[in-house]
Amino acid sequence: MRKRQQERIDPDLLNLHIERVVYTNRVSKTHKGGRTLSFQVMVVVGDTNGHVGVGLGKARQVPDAVRKAIEAARKNIIRVPRVGTTIPHEVEAEFGATRLILKPASPGTGIVAGSTVRALLEAAGITDVLAKLIGSRNPINAAYTTLEALRQLRTPEQIASTRGMKLSTLTPWYVRKFKEVAAQ
Q: Confidence class of residue 177 from pLDDT cuts 50, 70 and 90?
């Protein structure tokens, strides 16, 4: 499968007010003179308006690792298409030994997901979705799998233009819904 060129989003133009540490790990390296401790931190950043990023930082001190992770997450921001408070369609993604299934949910359902997946979806501004992790539930793999799943999402408009169809032919319910909203 050919990777699409992802557009670069400038984080300085966004109000990334959510910065959440989702994973911290203390690692040690043994040298001749003893052990050297360092920390690995994963951070999720988002604006709750369709933009989210994940970053991994490593340093000898936790605050330095968090700072590096935030910088990495800001460089790794993607745009997430949404339909109201949910995702446009069901999506499956894999990363390593982790498989994730995301399904749209009706308003009021909430986010039915584990902590790492939930943090990413909340940062992206998705409030109604069902998620299932299959295989490895390692937080790093779960975060990257969620990011890959969100990257695969397409709006009905994008799908219609890719197929060369009219939106009303592809999804008549979607067009009716927006006519009703516009009439109110």
A: low
E strands in the chain: 18-31, 34-46, 51-59, 77-79, 91-95, 98-104, 111-112, 129-135
Quick check: is 90 in a domain?
no
Give the tens place of pLDDT for each residue, 115-168: 999 999 999 999 999 999 999 999 999 999 999 999 999 888 888 888 888 877
Domain extent for 179: 156-184
The token pair at 61 is 């001190």
Count of residues in the chain: 184
Residue with tokens 């890719």: 162
Closest CA to 140 of 23, 6, 21, 25: 23
